[in-house]
Design a protein that fits this description.
Layout: H1 2-44, H2 48-53, E1 62-66, E2 71-75, H3 77-89, H4 91-95, E3 101-112, E4 115-128, E5 131-146, E6 149-159, H5 163-168
Parallel strand pairs: 1-6
Antiparallel strand pairs: 1-2, 3-4, 4-5, 5-6
Length: about 180
């Protein structure tokens, strides 16, 4: 009887511990998505101060974006921030996207002790002359936990829109579906 009681209690402790760990991971994932959304929303309203508050501001902060027209690789917070400032100052490009909104799905997030990464799909949508435009991308964020808060240290954005033309030309385009 004592053996069965001991086994039952041991099993109960393991089950409770496993549930608590899963709840903790889910809370971390929610917090990570909230930081990513806050960073993106700050970008959309050109608020460098708020955007900066969600970033690790050191020499290893990296921003990469690529699409069929161009790519950029920027290293170091000072350089990354300067790029944001230039983006925000370009009134002509913002005029055409003043009603820009993002739709995200397919989050894959891996949480470690003190760091995490996230990969997800984003569809950028905006209207010009009553016509809805959209641009698709696969995005990544690497994050570190600083004083209990998630901060972004890497932003990656690979534009996938436009490759349909390559497929139409008979060139292979591989697109894997995210579960």
């Amino acid at each position: 009887m004592k053996t069965n009681l001991f086994l039952f209690l041991t099993l109960a402790v393991l089950v409770v511990a496993a549930c608590q760990e899963q709840i903790g991971i889910n809370k971390e994932k929610e917090a990570i998505i909230a930081v990513i959304d806050a960073e993106s929303n700050a970008y959309l309203v050109r608020d460098l101060e708020t955007l900066s508050s969600h970033m690790i501001q050191d020499s290893l902060n990296i921003r990469i974006h690529a699409n069929k027209w161009e790519y950029a690789y920027t290293v170091g917070w000072e350089n990354v921030a300067e790029g944001y400032k230039k983006d925000f100052a370009n009134e002509e490009s913002w005029e055409g996207m003043k009603n820009l909104r993002l739709e995200r799905n397919g989050y894959n997030i891996k949480v470690y002790q003190g760091s995490a990464w996230a990969v997800f799909n984003t569809v950028y949508k905006w209207e010009v002359d009553s016509v809805t435009n959209e641009w698709k991308a696969i995005e990544t964020r690497f994050l570190e936990k600083v004083n209990g808060e998630w901060k972004i240290t890497y932003v990656g954005n690979v534009g996938t829109t436009g490759y349909e033309e390559k497929a139409a030309e008979g060139k292979e385009v591989v697109e894997e579906k995210v579960p």
